[in-house]
Amino acid sequence: MSEKEHAFSGPSSAAIPVKGFDVAGIHCGVKPTGALDLALIASSIACRAAAVFTKNAFPAASVLYNRNLLHMNPEGTHSVVINSGNANACTGAEGNANARRMAEGAEKSLGIPDNTSFVMSTGVIGVQLPISEIEEGIPKVAARFRPDGWQEASEAIMTTDVFPKWASKQVVVGGQTVTITGISKGAGMIHPNMATMLATLVTDAVIAQPLLQKALTVAVNRSFNRISVDGDSSTNDTVLMLANGAAGNQEITEKGADYDAFVEALTAASMELAKLIVRNGEGVTKFVTIQVEGAGDDGEAHQIANSVVKSSLVKTAFYGHDANWGRILGAVGYSGATVDPTNAQLFIAAGQPEAGSKELQLVDAGTPTGYQEEDASAIFAESEISVRLSLGLGEGAATVWTCDLGHNYVSINAEYRT
Amino acid sequence: MSEKEHAFSGPSSAAIPVKGFDVAGIHCGVKPTGALDLALIASSIACRAAAVFTKNAFPAASVLYNRNLLHMNPEGTHSVVINSGNANACTGAEGNANARRMAEGAEKSLGIPDNTSFVMSTGVIGVQLPISEIEEGIPKVAARFRPDGWQEASEAIMTTDVFPKWASKQVVVGGQTVTITGISKGAGMIHPNMATMLATLVTDAVIAQPLLQKALTVAVNRSFNRISVDGDSSTNDTVLMLANGAAGNQEITEKGADYDAFVEALTAASMELAKLIVRNGEGVTKFVTIQVEGAGDDGEAHQIANSVVKSSLVKTAFYGHDANWGRILGAVGYSGATVDPTNAQLFIAAGQPEAGSKELQLVDAGTPTGYQEEDASAIFAESEISVRLSLGLGEGAATVWTCDLGHNYVSINAEYRT
Asked: Best residue in A90, A348, A364 to probe B by mutation, most B CBs within 10 Å?
């Protein structure tokens, strides 16, 4: 599918360079199509790092490598090298050795110490990496290094993605403007708890490493862990953050106003990257926000929202412009969370939820209101839809973002390798 | 979609009548198409009853009605009246009153006491039943009563089903041949823990009511609760069993050889009905058996198998004839069950699993074997596929049956109400 045929498009403004970071992308030979397939991001100044990894019990070689590196060297890394076209997952000892060779290739090309480069891979599972092509490519991508290479790098990490994804935020902390810029990829195998989704964020902020990790965890839980394309979480999912301190702000060493401002900016950047992944969902024609409120607690609200966004029946109804809310309540009912059918209210609206948006109430006290079917269909015909479920049980709330399930999802995934 | 275009077909032999039971189906006016939409099954002799109901937190009116009736009168019921085209779910107090009116209509028409008829409904959620049409239809369907009306009754409970489903088994218990005949429906919203799936089984066996319930629970857990079409379980799922004792066998009053023989026959009939539901899955072109063995325990094996059969990525790969086993291991990895990636073995074969069937091993010790892609694709091109995952951790095992996810699933479900 070309970008032109896709219902949504990518970022509308350019990424903002981050002091001290260079970035580039090239085609090295992993993808037979000749498309960009190798990205390199590095800081000349040593970085504090933080990361969130997939919980999949079959973690890819890169996940194992990065977990170990982060544990070993949380304050002195420089770079991340990323290939697309091959996930280096389910590849055993040879896969682990290849992940190390990728990292060593980056370290050698950049003239940085051993054990200072992270690695990521995304693409087909169970095939060994063409490691020679990657090793030959690394010096070439390093030769293209520049501060504004973000678009090219984000193109180089795409698989079934239709458009490249980046986001930038700036915020004043400790008396200085700091910049956060990130890229992400992902279009299928997308579900909370990390999906076939890679993201790298870099910042020039000065922030203690434990707080950087806390901030990233908070941001990921409010963004990447709140999106679902198809309910599959993958072997490779990683969100990595590098902070080189080049902004020279007074160091963030504890929770407080500066930390909060940083978290807010990081969360905003992460949400933009996460929502771009949903908009880029395979075969997607709808961007849907599901809000659950009045659940027993936030965990139950999230459980209910997840059950709804995993339902193929709900998602084909979005695709078919069919306001078949019975399927939504059905999925709520089998979520395992506590609900009271006689208390449930369901509302829909066009667009993303915002104050004053005009809602149509479909269900009151668990039964249909007297709404007009054509009003509901008109809302479901929009490309952005909001669904709000109010349960009347407690204070628990959660918001997730998802998409529809259409013919093109099937086409893309039935023919992925063939 | 017509039956002719569907990849699979229904039962190959006729249902066997059961002593004392009459059955029929008609069009009464629920379905605008004029197709059969009302079935009635009844015994002139009072029946012991057993049932398994949906665990959905939004149970339909019929589920609430039947749960109460079974509790109140487990040994003296006579009949079940079933409509298709409307699920009478999320319909509040009016829906509950309509379920009662359906039951009372059957009781009046058949001249049987109050509180002796079960009710079932299947179809669209959230619309009130056209109760007058059903009340007028009940005497008409009763007027067509005969012992061999099973095909007509099973047609009358279809929704998106392509073919009617029935199964019969006979077994000697307590010195007499007893017959079990059942019908089922279901094509979407199909997942373990009962789906939009209705089944009614009747038998002339003499069996104590508590044992009848035990036998049904065992049979359901080995059959209806082991199938998945799309991971959605519904508001209406019910398996009902009526036993009128007309066979005159020595009563089954305790566990032993007679009970075991009865359970075996009932399980066989239930498995036939359940597998017919998968074969009838919406847009289905593949019937897939997933066997998990070597898991920590049976529960973990089932959890792993369920995670695989709920994956849209796995199911589109079946549809696309793509032996993309990385998606299978990915789904195993996020199941939440304990696995050891370095121990996993994966095998595929054409057909249903049987002793001596020729398997192709795709994965050994968590990494690909040197199998030939064309051999794997040839197996995935078959209409019946078996997948066996061996985990090497313990004795836990489970088998589930599922199908592929294709363009027609999307078409059927995007256009269900429109």
From this structure: A90
